[in-house]
Structure prediction request, 186 residues.
Amino acid sequence: MIVNCVVGQAGSGKSTFIEKNFPSEEYIFFNVGKILRSMFSCLKKEQDNKNVWEFANPFVYSTLKHCCLVSESTGHDVVLDGFPRDETQLSHMDRYLSTPELGKVEVVIHALDINRSEQIKRIKDRNGSVDNYQEQRVDQSRTDFDNIVEALEHIFISGNSPISYKIKWYNQVDGGFVFSREATNR
Prediction:
């Protein structure tokens, strides 16, 4: 089974990247942010962490597990849009995907890293403006992205994960992304 995780800061172009690189009829998709924003939009100004609803994590983890089980039984790879969002979610994903009943698992992290000014511009273009909530979300998403990268480095260095990890980095070019480099833990 291959699990493709498309990660990046808020507004980095994760969904657009997926549309251009993963034909919808060939993959199982889980757009975490879209589902949670739809379900919990009434709470967006009440959360402490502007990028992750902690109370939603059990739902997210359960859905991830179901996507992986369907992938295992059908042979269709999984594409996760916006998961993991932070190092805690990465840890949960690594622990679950390491279970022996899933067999051989390869995780491909597609890392879309953009600078803050481009991030603000994209969010402004999408929403019409950037309010205080969006500013906080931008800062939180940048911190979370950096923490995911750091946690992945620990997985690579420790060499303890039975999962084959590959990180594919993409550079921002003319509002889009171009493959830059990759690293593997094997």
